[in-house]
Amino acid sequence: MDFFLEPSTWAGLLTLVVLEVVLGIDNLIFVAILSEKLPPNQRDKARLIGLGFALIMRLGLLSLISWVVTLTSPIINNRFFALSVRDLILLIGGLFLLFKATIELHERLENEDHENTENKNYAGFWAVVIQIVVLDAVFSLDAIITAVGMVNQLLIMMIAVILATILMLLASKALTNFINLHQTVVVLCLSFLLMIGFSLVAEALKFSIPKGYLYAAIGFSILIEIFNQIARHNFMKNQSRKPMRQRAAEAILRLMIREKNQNKNNQKAQLDNNEKTSIVPSLETEMFKDEEKYMINGVLTLAGRSIKSIMTPRSNISWVNTEKNTNEIRTQLLDTPHSLFPVCKGELDEIIGIVRAKELLVAIEKNIDVYKFAAQIPPIIIPDTLDPINLLGVLRRAQGSFVIVSNEFGVVQGLITPLDVLEAIAGEFPDADETPDIIKEQNSWLVKGETDLHSLQQLLNTKELIQEDDCASLGGLLIAQNGQLPIPGEIININSFAFHIVKATEYRIDLVRIIKH
């Protein structure tokens, strides 16, 4: 035992442990990939048994060093090739590794489900263990031959093998978890196994491939994957800083875009084949309908909109003037389809209250003063800077009525009803006395100047229109773009759209025809 006192012994032991661990990395990768096929409660057991067999096999082979050395003597020798027992073992192991890695790669490249679900068909425990043992035999032989070539003391070899196996046992679970959590790493490891399998076959057939080349290629690939994982980690870290609502919205919008592209590809493939397939109808049933996409987009973008883009503008408000006589008020109520009216004194900015047309007509018949009757139901006034999400709570408190939108100077900007919010989400619902804001023509759209920009963008399937936060309507956008109020016949180009002014007054834009270039 005096040789333990020699520094060269410890240097040889340390070197041999490092080499044994390096030579066992491919074994660990294979064990990690195979153990994934077992139920979670059996994976640790499979790793322990597999690496335990590796340790027993290596210690057994070390105790038969004289026999192991004879494995390099040719048993098949002709003018084409010479094969020893070692060569045959390497050849069979290499072919098995190529076959297994190819099958695993095929499953992942075909995007087959590898998630842990109740319906997953797990592999048999002993079938997996046997596969691990078969590869252990190949890798053990390679490791033992390396040990024999480096150290002369049998005890040193056995200690090195035991220490290397213990290190691999400690690292196996962490390595397995890391590989299984990162699918790109799984593909990279399977590529390594393909390379190692090819090198084993080449070595068995006496085609020399320097190990340094293999390790350099593997090291470079690992370095690139480390950069990839760092980039992915930083991306996820950056994403985590975004509000949860924004991340959810972006994910759903990406899903809708992906499904839209998939639907187009399926339709194109169907036209190319000039026949109906059973795949397209089944996929269409999983797609979002156009109305659903519109509503989902409306819900997800509601928080980013301004109150001005949702409200009914001041110019479209029908209001009751208390300074008019009762006959004029009665005629106005009967001729207008609205059921709710703001009651004002002389001008819209002097709001007294909100009344229902039916109740006000009854009050007029009973000769009740309109001013006093309207004052019983004071209006709910909100600033034009209010968050649309907070608007929903205010509308609930209004109990079926509407709220008045005012600016910082107390000037009424418009009003918002529950229907306005619904239209912001689901699209326009014209009243009986209204024409639609957007009319689809053959190659163009005829649009009112007061049309909400968000609704117009969704209909035109573009994000090119909303450039200024202060612009809530199409007319406001065109005036801001032109620098002044355009005249009829004028054409304003914004990105891929041409806006032809059809009708305009000296105060506002009434009608625009939109043509896409």
From TrEMBL:
Transmembrane segments: 12-34, 46-68, 80-103, 124-148, 154-172, 184-201, 213-231
Location of the CBS domain: 311-370
Main localization category: membrane
Membrane association type: Multi-pass membrane protein
Keyword Repeat: yes
Keywords: CBS domain, Cell membrane, Membrane, Repeat, Transmembrane, Transmembrane helix
Localization terms from the record: Cell membrane
GO cellular component: plasma membrane
InterPro entries according to UniProt: CBS_dom, CBS_dom_sf, FAD-bd_PCMH-like_sf, FAD-bd_PCMH_sub2, Integral_membrane_TerC, Ion_transp-like_CBS, Transptr-assoc_dom
GO MF term set: flavin adenine dinucleotide binding
Protein family (similarity comment): Belongs to the UPF0053 family.
Cross-referenced PANTHER family: HEMOLYSIN-RELATED, UPF0053 INNER MEMBRANE PROTEIN YOAE
Name of this chain's protein: TerC family protein
Phylogenetic placement of the source organism: Bacteria, Pseudomonadati, Pseudomonadota, Gammaproteobacteria, Enterobacterales
